[in-house]
Design goal:
With 222 residues, the protein is mainly alpha-helical. The protein is built from seven helices and two strands; from the N terminus they run αββαααααα. It is extended and about 90 Å long.
Length: 222
């Protein structure tokens, strides 16, 4: 088996896993109870046929009260469409997807509620921001260099390691130094100003300053 065939199969597997995960989470978020999937779609509840006459002021004037229903949300509309699918599709496709989504949701909720999970999410978020900032500065300084050369396996390892060290230092300093949050805000402002200055120089470099135009002035002396 060639390398290209293996890469294609890995991409297909990764795409299929991503699609199944997204469909599972969507199905679980739309349907709260798996028994609702096996039900038939409910009739339209927006029937305004019920009218109650509260007061008849004149032969041609009425005060009426009618039943008003709010429109379906996108989740309710999607649930109704799922219920309209054939029973084999709901039993063999939607129910397994709902089960997978329930497991993923429970794991994520339990991980998010724990202090370790919050620390992991905070760490990943800061690492992503640092990597994104590095890529932005790199493209501003070297616009002609493609990102493929930046994200080689060796460079990507160093980038991730640097983001890990900076994020870990941020967490440690936040625990040991009470005034670190003030210093951290100052450093963020300085980094933002540096990025904006680089961006300003790159944008202004494309537009050269206007040249002075020589004018010929004739003086008449009497």
């Amino acid at each position: 088996m060639s390398r290209n065939t293996r890469k294609i199969k890995k991409r297909i597997a990764a795409g299929a896993a991503t699609a199944v995960t997204a469909a599972s989470i969507l199905t679980n978020s739309v349907v709260s109870n798996p028994a609702d999937l096996l039900k038939s779609s409910s009739p339209d509840a927006s029937d305004n046929s019920h009218v109650l006459i509260l007061e008849n002021e004149s032969p041609h004037s009425y005060i009426l009260e009618t039943d008003q229903y709010e429109p379906y949300t996108w989740k309710e509309q999607l649930c109704i469409r799922m219920q309209k699918l054939p029973l084999p599709v709901k039993s063999l496709v939607l129910l397994p997807l709902w089960g997978i989504g329930e497991v993923i949701t429970v794991l994520l909720s339990s991980l998010w509620s724990s202090p370790i999970g919050q620390a992991i999410f905070h760490f990943l978020l800061e690492a992503a921001v640092l990597i994104g900032l590095f890529v932005l500065v790199f493209k501003l300084l070297f616009p002609d260099v493609p990102l493929k050369s930046l994200f080689s396996k060796k460079n990507l390892l160093w980038i991730i390691l640097g983001a890990v060290l900076l994020t870990a230092a941020d967490l440690v300093l936040g625990i040991l130094w009470d005034q670190w949050h003030v210093v951290r805000i100052i450093l963020m402002i300085v980094c933002a100003l540096i990025v904006l200055m680089i961006l300003w120089v790159k944008l202004c470099g494309k537009f050269p300053p206007p040249k002075r135009i020589k004018k010929r002035v004739e003086l008449v002396i009497q």
